[in-house]
Amino acid sequence: NGNSNNQPKSLRNVSNTLLKEDLEALIAEFQLLDAKKTQVVESTCPPPPPRLHASLCAHPEKDELILFGGEYFNGKKTFLYNDLFFYNIKKNTWVKSEIPSPPPRRCAHQAVVVPQGGGQMWVFGGEFASPDGEQFYHYKDLWVLHLNTHTWEQIKAPGAPSGRSGHRMVLSKRQLLVFGGFHESARDYIYYNDIYAFNLDTFTWSRLTPSGTGPLPRSACQMTPTLDGTGVIIYGGYSKSRAKKDVDKGTIHSDMFLLKREGKDEQEKWSWTRVSSSGVKPPPRTGFSMGLGPTGRALLFGGVCDEEDEETLQGDFFNDLYLYDFTKNRWFPGQLKRGKSEKKKRRRGKKGVEEGGQMEESPQESSEEPQQPTEIVKEIVTEDGTVMTIKEVIPAAQAAAEESEEEEEEEEEEEGAAAAPKVEPCPRSNAMVTVKHGKLYLYGGMFEVGDRQFTLNDFYCLDLQKLEQWEVLVQMDPKTQEWLEESESEDEGDEEEAKGGEDDDDDDDEESSEEESDEEEGDEHPPVKPGESLADYQSRTEAYWQGVARTNMGPDAKDKKVQKVGLAMAKVFFEDQA
């Protein structure tokens, strides 16, 4: 799958016990590679490889989508990305854009597009993970991609939120609002419920202090700006706490809050209000995807509900769609229409979906206690013969609608009308979604079967005005589904990585050029002498590695910090050479 291209050779056998300084050294190594790119290079390419926790945004000026960053886990190793892709909606083509001095590799960040200055994409926070996925570095940096000039710029402003990932960021008037998230270290973790505002006119951060009672600390919630631009809606999310020694308990939140702004400039005041919504609400879940649809509706897709005990963790994955109407303060299931059969239903007096995607209320939606969801099981056979059993939970309203549709389809078959095959994304969590011209675009994500994780790179589109059927833009390629069992040796893993790179014909040139650059990079570093100890090597090459660290960290970094990172980089290189 070509993922071996994403790590320099000097970093492929790093110790599993990485300290924070070691992670900073890894990040600095990657930035060294990025620093070799001095001009913008754009090339037509196949769809991006599988990933999750990336960002997908709609270009504010063009008919394009922008995909940035993300992560991939193959069962043994975690790969982080900072690559940038543009999808041309009209041509259905992808372009990879390599721009000098990009943000370091990351996932679980947030990206927001604004139309000013010819179009900009703002990126804040996120995390970098060690190859074994056990250690994390949380960013607190803010970047802007100038879309008209194709240049990255880091914005350094005091008072920014602390390092975090899993937070949410939206545009509200002329401010970027950042809420929640979490920070995890080897010893502990913390979840946030603070909220910050970044002013796009003055380039300044401020921490808001709203009145009222707000949400509990959480990450991965839904955060959507209100129609009038005076506030945001917060829904759901996830947090965990230590119930007893060494046992963590996860909590899936399903509450909703309104953060509202009153007044202007210096007289600006914020307040929290708890919202009690009506309608058919989504069953509890985390890892769902969110977006802002047309006609003033927020949308929620997929996710997973984990069933935890002290020894196992099993998840029910979803592929359903829900819409929240701001004006009515009401949830609606996003049921798809069925063309001719839908018209027959209306003639028979059944309530379904109005023209233009507007939903009518059914008796169940008015009920305070809706029926229980229906559980179905699907089996998918992969190319290698693995049978994946996917448990899917369908809301009661959708299940009832599909049951009635099945009865009508039988009637239609008796009349000689063939039912069209149903096309939809498989159940998943952490998919990337965005809305452009009233259409919902959905990319990638993941689901699990037993201990195996499947990271996806399929691509779908749904017209939110018509709500008729999903359009497949990119089908899932079974060849991208690499999974290395823990019992496999490191050598076998390396061989599989090499095979993955060789099988990807489209990346052959890129792979060879990156390997050459890796070899050149290795030759540039001071070599380890035979029999030399780590302490001796660090002492002998101290000036060199501190120079490398200073180059990557900038002139404003403290000398003590530069020294630590330099020693860590020397250690990483020494262990690899040894």
Textual characterization of the structure:
37% of the residues are buried. 20% of the residues lie in helices and 38% in strands. It is an alpha+beta fold and 578 residues long. The strands form 8 sheets. A 5-stranded antiparallel sheet has the order 1-5-4-3-2, with no helix packed on it. A 5-stranded mixed sheet has the order 20-24-23-22-21, with no helix packed on it.
Characteristic key phrases:
single chain; 578 residues; alpha+beta; five-stranded antiparallel β-sheet; five-stranded mixed β-sheet; 30 strands; 20% helix; 38% strand; disordered N terminus
The overall average pLDDT, rounded, is 79
Query: What's the quaternary structure here?
Result: single chain
Main beta-sheet strand count, sense and barrel state: 5 strands, antiparallel
Helix run count: 9
Q: Which strand order spans the largest sheet, edge to edge or round the barrel? A: 1-5-4-3-2
- Helix and strand content put the structural class at alpha+beta
Shape: globular
Cα(first) to Cα(last) distance is 28 Å
Radius of gyration: 25 Å
Beta-strand proportion: 35-45%
Give the helix level as a range of percent. Answer: 10-25%
Low-confidence stretches: 1-18, 340-370, 378-392, 412-419, 488-523
Total E-strand runs? 30
Region (Disordered): 337-374, 396-425, 482-543
Protein name: Kelch domain containing 4
Biased composition (Acidic residues): 402-416, 483-523
Biased composition (Basic residues): 337-350
